[in-house]
Amino acid sequence: MSFIKNFIICEKAKLEDFPTSIKIDNIEYNIEIIFSKKKSSSVSVDKKTLIFRLSSLLSKTEGQNHFSSLLKRISKKLYESIDKIQEVDFTYILERGWFEFSGEKYILQPKKIRGVKMISNTFFYDFKMNFERLEAYIVKLLIEKYSPRLDKYVREINERTYNFKINKIELKLVKSKWGHCTGYDDLMFNLKLLNGTVEMLDYVIIHEICHIKYKDHSPRYWKEVEKHLPNYKEIRKLLKSNPPVLFK
């Protein structure tokens, strides 16, 4: 009888038992609690909202314990992802007034001018300019500045390896690939690579130069890559797990 009595007076977990927001590494996340009939509990992230799915069968204490355990788990994951270099929104860069690219610091300076001008490592821009247009201008100027450097570097690596005839080397900002070799042996490299490590850049350059010899990803192709970069698999994993971003 006492067991039944204790079960009846056991208070169920309610929405008001949990916080509505929390800060993790100075980033504020909203908290959404969803009660379900499932016995298990889970947590997921949707942009800046942590969604906790808790069992409706839990008592107040049990619910808070589940919540604390899930919060600890998701916080660890978020901290780990924050430790990696993340793609920074350009509006944040604009508010901060600077960014890093290829080991150099660039200043953003609003001014009463037309368009955008890069003098040394400072971008002077029309203070009335739309931020999306400004970002496009900056990308264009970075490509103009770094294209000759990349062209020289790629050709030096090519001379040390195969000395193939490379028609054209382009630097572009693309979403879907790090590099590309056309059927005409033109090479393209993603601008973001210049914000990564030298090992990442070298890997993609070797990767594309080897495609001049083999236009596929057959075993013989990968043996060719391995000939010049014995640790290419490690670099490829790093490129996937911690990819370079445009703005730091």
Biggest sheet, strands in spatial order? Answer: 1-2-4-3
- Helix percentage range: 40-55%
CATH topology tier name of the largest domain:
Zincin-like
Quaternary: single chain
Strand coverage percent: 15-25%
* Count of distinct strands: 11
Radius of gyration: 26 Å
Pattern of helices and strands: HEEEEHHEEEEHEEEHHH
Characterise the protein shown here.
The protein is of the alpha/beta class and 248 residues long. The chain folds into 2 domains: 2-83, no CATH class; 90-241, Metalloproteases ("zincins"), catalytic domain (Zincin-like, 2-Layer Sandwich), CATH 3.30.2010. Helices cover 43% and strands 23% of the residues. It has 7 helices and 11 strands. The chain has helices spanning 2-9, 60-83, 90-96, 131-161, 198-213, 219-228, 232-241; strands at residues 21-24, 27-36, 42-46, 49-55, 98-101, 104-111, 116-119, 122-126, 169-172, 179-181, 187-190. It has a 4-stranded mixed β-sheet with strand order 1-2-4-3, with helices on one face. A 4-stranded mixed β-sheet has the order 5-6-8-7. A hairpin with a 2-residue loop joins strand 1 and strand 2 (27-36). Helix 5 crosses helix 6. The longest helix has 31 residues, at 131-161. The radius of gyration is 26 Å and the shape is flat. It starts with a helix and ends in a 7-residue tail after the last helix.
